[in-house]
What does this fold into?
Amino acid sequence: MITWREGIVVGVDARWGQVQQVLVEVTGVDVPVRALAYLDVVGELVEGDRVLLNTNAIDRQLGTGGAAMVVAIPDRLPPVPQPSPGHIVKARYTPLQMMVLGVDEQESPHYEALQDAGDLAGMPVVTADLHSALPAVLAGLREYRPQLKAAYVMTDGGALPASFSRTLDGLREAGWLAGVVTVGQAFGGDLEAVNVHTGLLAARLVLDADVAIVSQGPGNLGTGTRWGFSGTSAGEALNAAHILGGRAVAGLRVSQADARERHLGISHHSRTAYTRVALVSAELPVPQLPGDFGAKVSAQADDMVTASQQRLTRIDVRVDGLLDALRESPVPLRTMGRDLDADPASFLAAAASGRHAAMIGPTD
It folds into this structure.
């Protein structure tokens, strides 16, 4: 069920990309509520607008998604859009479904290039469980070969609108990304694609990327059960990369600060996605971390190789110089509420996968 509320916009708090963050005065609530409005969905807001809100996230005190969502400006609806090509519907059969032009559909200027495409020509594809790994993977990639073009393929396990991510906004502005492809029900990228397969092909053939990074959008769903988490999509992305002739690189989710045993060292998300969901050969970059914690990660990686029936090939990756590279990130590094200083192993593991992808990337 949706918790519906009505309120009045009393201020615009921030804006990035196609997102406005506004403050809304809601009847019965003592302080203004923070709410997000997607401009390409509801239009632009100004102070005094009456808005309809979905407040489920703040009622449940969610983390990444902890804001109300503006559903409509009922007294000032946006103009009817001009006819445009595209018939792919995302957020299908919900009240906010929208129509977009898919890179892989008949009306797309890239349709001919993608119609019979099926080969990534050995392009490295780095998969990651969390969206927060993206800038760290890019930092490792750029530290080794800054000239490589990287594309981000965003799956629909977390936030659906790409514009929700301030990280993407900052990475684009810094020139760290050749482009963003939103796949499945995710939307708002530079290109839209039906699934991760055509998303990867679009990254290679349309964006001319040397490397693709695949992860869900901001936020992720986990239930504490063996299979109940949205990061299983990382294993599915490895399958797609391999089937399409890419170099499948399994980026590890690692933490030295998570209080939950199942996420300490190599997260059970990575262990399950890469040894049980992925059914193909893939490269497993393992960061060479010091001390007892490094030994723990190393032993867990060996267990993963065994559990995968040797489908995973362990690649030890040095981490010297990567902390400095991470500190040069144009966007804040933060994962599960922790920054680089609080959980360096998390970001070093992601950067190690980027360094490895750069080492095996194209040589011309």
Remarks:
- The longest strand covers residues 4-16.
- The CA atoms of residues 9 and 24 lie 4 Å apart.
- The two ends are 54 Å apart (CA to CA).
- The chain has two domains: 4-72, 111-360.
